[in-house]
Specification:
By secondary structure, the protein is an alpha/beta fold. The protein has 12 helices and 14 strands. The chain has a domain at 2-171: HUPs (Rossmann fold, 3-Layer(aba) Sandwich). The mean pLDDT is 93.
Length: 401
């Protein structure tokens, strides 16, 4: 029986390659959808481990550019940070990865597709929602979830069969992508504990200082320190350089799709830098109403993506709004990266609303503005509160003036 396994190289999917081959008699092809986070050594090691575990073949599909164009550009445009902290590093990949899995399965006539999601995580919902939408007739297996196999049992089974166990022995679930890296398990099951320094991957020992200049065109980052890059290369470069300075490290405790609380650690240097820069540029060029409603809809967009609704048509409607909102989000942002912190030190744009006015905040009103205008505005804004107080007084039989 030929099956296609969504293979990350972690403990769950490593176990599945071996288990499906030995216990179910399947002919397993392992598919890794590359949405970023792999270097060449990683790719070679992942492919070699898949074959060593029993896969008849291993395939990589490079989806990094598609990941940026269809997912990350909207996370930047919407300034998405779940819980005000987490930039949806790896979970945002799952809808696209499921789509690639279904595409390869159909093109090569596999009997079924398999994923390694557990019963207690968000990814099972994301994979199942995507696959049921775009490939409703495709047979989907989730053996780890359905059999409720623990990570300890997976590790023990692999060791018992003298098979390779992923780095760190599978104690932590580590997932890397273009938009960041997440760490789950271990101390993170206790909300009061922190990770040991040696568990961090991209920001371990990070320190130092650097000034960075970024340029955006219609909300998309296109240039760093005077040099133009394609989007994928730019994100990967910021991840490396900002990560070495300790930028982007954080913890996120939030609500899972299945209704329980979950906690992860993350390292997202590029997301931290780009969202900080983009948000400040928007403040310069958007009106207050544009920014207010875009922030609200950005929260909606991120929440739905987190829930696995990547293919829902309402996401396309929101993206159309974001496209309109980004028409003037062009300009340059200067940031100081220092020992893990990001400080936006300056921003400029040909569409600057600040430059368009000759007023100086706190000092001088602009041309055509009456110095008494603020007084009338203050009275108008305060009128509902005055009427509220007066109505209360009248109801109590008190005299009003």
């Amino acid at each position: 029986m030929r099956v296609l396994l969504a293979y990350s190289g972690g403990l769950d999917t490593s176990y599945l390659v071996a288990w499906l081959t030995r216990e179910r008699g399947c002919e397993v092809t392992a598919l890794t959808v590359d949405c970023g986070g792999f270097d060449q050594d990683d790719k070679l090691a992942i492919a070699a481990r898949a074959v060593a575990l029993g896969a008849v073949a291993h395939r990589f599909v490079d989806s990094r550019r598609e990941m940026f164009d269809r997912v990350l550009r909207w996370l930047i445009a919407a300034n998405v940070r779940r819980g005000g902290v987490y930039p949806l590093c790896v979970g945002a990949e799952r809808g696209l990865q499921a789509e690639m899995l279904a595409r390869v399965a159909r093109e090569n006539d596999f009997r079924a597709v398999v994923h390694g999601c557990t019963a207690a995580g968000n990814d099972q919902v994301r994979f199942e929602a995507a696959l049921s939408t775009i490939a409703p007739g495709l047979e989907v297996w989730a053996p780890v979830r359905d059999a409720r196999v623990s990570r300890e049992a997976e590790r023990a089974w692999l060791l018992e069969h003298d098979l390779p166990v992923p780095a760190a022995g599978g104690r932590y679930s580590i997932n890397a992508g273009l938009w960041g890296l997440t760490i789950g398990g271990g101390e993170l099951h206790d909300s009061s504990l922190s990770l040991p320094e040696d568990v961090w991957q991209w920001t371990r020992g990070g320190h130092g200082e650097k000034i960075v200049k970024l340029r955006f065109e219609e909300g998309v980052p296109v240039e760093m320190d005077g040099k133009t890059y394609d989007a994928v290369t730019l994100v990967e470069r910021i991840n490396r350089e900002a990560g070495r300075l300790g930028v982007g490290r954080g913890y996120h405790l939030g609500d899972t799709v299945i209704g329980i609380k979950g906690r992860i650690a993350f390292e997202a240097p590029a997301a931290e830098v780009l969202i900080a820069a983009h948000r400040e540029l928007e403040k310069l060029v958007l009106t207050e109403e544009q920014r207010f409603w875009k922030d609200h809809l950005g929260e909606v967009y991120g929440r739905r993506l987190h829930q696995g609704l990547f293919h829902d048509p309402f996401q396309r409607d929101l993206e159309a709004f974001f496209t309109s909102s980004q028409a003037r989000v062009s300009g340059e942002v200067t940031l100081r990266l220092r020992h893990g912190a990001v400080l936006v030190e300056g921003v400029s744009s040909p569409y600057s609303l600040m430059s368009a006015s000759d007023a100086k905040y706190g000092e001088m009103v602009g041309t055509g503005m009456s110095p008494q205008g603020a007084l009338g505005l203050a009275h108008a804004l305060a009128r509902p509160a005055r009427l509220h107080l007066r109505a209360g007084a009248l109801a109590a039989g008190e005299a009003t003036s």
